[in-house]
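Q: Start with the shorter request: fold the first protein.
A: Done. Sequence, then structure:
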Amino acid sequence: PEDLTPITVVTGFLGAGKTTLVNHILKEQRKWKIAVLENEFGEVPIDDGLVAESMDAPEDLITMDNGCVCCSVRGDLIRTLGQLSKRRKDFDAILLETTGLADPAPIIYTIQSNPKMSDHYRIDSIVCLADCKHLGQHLDEVKPEGAVNEALHQVAFCDRILLNKIDLVTKEEKEALKTRLTSINKFATIIETQRSRAPLDKILGVNSFNMDSILSYDPSFFEADPEGSEQEGEDKETTETPKKKKKVHKIELVQSVGVQFGGDLHAQWFNMFMMDLLRERAEDLFRMKGLLSFHGQGNTKFVFQGVHEQVNFGPAKQPWGADEERINKFVFIGKNLDRKELTKGLMECLYKE
């Protein structure tokens, strides 16, 4: 439905420049009318007593000169969005700023699955605002028991990375960081910016969080890395290496894997494969996308998109073209992914005459 108000979720660390970005939107730009929701709940569960009291408190909605509004979500996000829904036609977009919230999955899940929300809103994109100078340190942070740190989480989840404060690093540092971000999430568009002056048309109303977005990915995303530079090839000592081996950076805990192959899938086998995968690995799978051709479904092109165990599936807007080669494409972003294993499992779902 075209009529839904788009929500852009902004994640990132304290100090990455979110306040500057929000101020830029609220005070400096004149093109967009945006409702900025500042999320103040952080990681701490809220005391129920306080929530009950604040239910009657008036909405602290501040209206700016440029028609934007700002309000802080102190309790339930659903309640705030519910109250805004009557006025949502006044806004071009909603920007939900989530400080320190590592995993946007619950927010996405709620907005997509709660009919009070999904009748009014849609997730437009997830933007990670990153401070060029300090992101590397955040990504390197080691958590107990091999858990995934917040920075990796945020980079893995987003569709857009706003690389901020690029004026504070050398060109080499910046390029090294971009290479690293691409290995974690090669599907996110990287937008460089200084002092959070983001081109808003690249982060608002871009509709990048949708099932069809996989259709526009660069085909090279789905090719295996040369030299088998995934997990293997590290320890094989070979004598004849005059040709320079592609420098393998340390394997990130979180990676993106693209898989593609031709043919028609067997719907039942594919469903079983996905159910098994999600049952065993849902926690490790941050995001998944797919473009599928099923046996017996004519020229209907299917797409799916998932966040952990929450998967949405359906027909793409356009069917397969008459002369279009039917190639199934899959994207997995997650922890400890094995490309060979995923490819083998998916290819076993092909329909065989």
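Q: Next, the second protein, separately.
A: Sequence, then structure:
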Amino acid sequence: FPKCDLYSDKRGSWVTTPDHSPNKSNIRYLEVEEHFIGDSGPGEALYFDQLWIPHNCSYHRFTNHTLHKCVKYLLKEKEEFGSIEHVEKQRIRIMFLGDSTTRAIFCGITRIIAGSEVYGPCQNIVCPSNNDVGIGKTVEFFDGLLEMTFVYVHTYDYPRVDWIIYDMAVTSADKPFAIIMNTGAWSFDGIARQHMGVEAKEYCDDNDNTTLEYSQIARGRASVEFNKSMWELGEAAHEAGVRLIYRNNHYNTRFGAHCADDRIEAALKGSRWEIWDNREMSRDVWREQTFDGLHFDRGSIHTYEEHVELVQTKIYNSIFWGFKHWPSAGQLEMQLSQSLLQSLFHDCLMGSVPNKLLF
């Protein structure tokens, strides 16, 4: 299959992996491999219960080695275009603004760099915790060539996310390559706590009494002031050569994913913001991949034995939260991490020669 266009890997479906299938003939390895580019093929994804297959295109399953190569490729590109000639320390900087769900995707990338999607580790100053609102925590990889920063934010207004983004993307002389932003969980936290144990509807409707409160929050999230600010930030960041990516919310039990983001996405249509869709990949598996209906975080560095214990704990917690099982710890977390890398390093994957890999 041809390489997936930017963000087209989000359209696809989950299939049972060969090793986990009761009927081993229901999917052949050759059929799986057609959807992956690079020598590593599906890689560690085969260890999970299910495998994400994009529709009619192929994507790359990043490893430490290929991510390192892409970082060096982008640095070389930036150097040739002169966009980092005034920066003392040449590196790719990626910044995350969000809550614990965005942090989990951040942690997923550190697992890939550490060498194991399945067993971790992600031990650093960010994962598995960092709840200091508005305070950035930074980690470096590949001898400083890749720098990732996570800033915990509650809502767009707390802290002032627009100020943070403007400072990072426009004011700073040391600009990031990309900024990924997400909010939602804290916006709906108050009403979600009032309805614990009740699954929020996917969409919210002003005419439906059961979703009116959710709808009011959703409208506030996409206020006139917010939309104007986001557009202006998009233009300013684009002029500065910084990519702004809005991560919409994955499916969850606390608030409707469409309710939270549909108005925001409509407002951003045609702007310089990129929309990274987390809904499609989570639609059919979120119940099994969240231990409390929202979080798919795992622990920090751990051995195989600790991993087994972790999974058993998640199974117990999932029963406590009203879910029946919690297979393949990290399956969705890692797929979202891989999807983000697919978009961040899309130019590297496409390369200067059509249909030819750089690794």
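Q: Describe the second briefly.
A: The CA atoms of residues 97 and 120 lie 22 Å apart. Residues 22-26, 84-88 have pLDDT under 50 and may be disordered.
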